[in-house]
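Any chance you could type out some protein's one-letter sequence along with its backbone structure tokens so I can compare the two?
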Amino acid sequence: MDRQEREGLAADLTRIEQMNLGRRRMLSLGAIGGLAALAGCAAPAGRSGPPSGGWAGPPADGMRGPPPGGRRGPPPGGFGDHGPGGPPPQIDNGPVVTGTASNGTRCVAFARETEGPYPADGSNTARGQVANVLGRSGLQRQDIRSDIGGGNAAPGIPLDLSLRLVDVNTGCMPLPGHAIYLWHCDPNGQYSLYDQPDRSWLRGLQVTDDNGLVRFRTIVPGCYMGRYPHIHFEAFTSLPIATAGKFARLTSQLAVPAETCDAAYTSSVYARSARTWAQSRDIARDMVFGDNGAERIKVMTLEVGGSAAGGFQGSAVIGLAG
């Protein structure tokens, strides 16, 4: 594992721990509120309870950002047999939330996941400067294989994506007019703007149509030590909110099926990924997907057809519940 991989994995662990602490705080607030309500029944007259307005929601500029003090390095003792810090940290993602469409089909809410250390959404820096492509002209595009604005296409086996955004709370109704920002690593496990500061490939944004659908043309992402092959995305309620880099309604990840990786990583372009794939192929032990349970993991894994010779086609139904 090289230095960039160690730093990236350590940053992922930091983000996951922050998400875990956030959930714990919310649970604590709920418990405190319940105790306060019980105490209020017997409280002397005139004693005030919790503020009438309740929680005001996330701050105007969102809830993301680098951890205080910057990114942490590897834990004492280094990385264990299971990747950085040992087995994947377990985050309580709660019960599986589902909806049922009018035709009887089910949809499942995606779990919120870390955006990782390479989002380029304004929440962190690269080479000492804020990394943010969300307001860049040309980001809204279907084919994301080249740099924003064209040129310098990332090599790799083509992967055409069809992603459908639905509302789990309204019978799996489509969500038109939402913006989805998508990014992932290249066949060597490197990210544009961070590992490759002069490149902006494999990043793009699309707006859902009346059926809640967006399409991207990309490549099969690579594999790096400690992570199962994946694609990052953020879903925003509108294009203006997305380009302003404001609060994302959902930040999550899509997994690539093992069979697709097996086929793609035989290509010489993915030689580096092939060397780490054997240690990363168990999605149940992945530090992001591993705590979601079998049902959610299945939903968050792309359905893929095609071949390495002719290219792959992947699809997913992304359920939003919050």
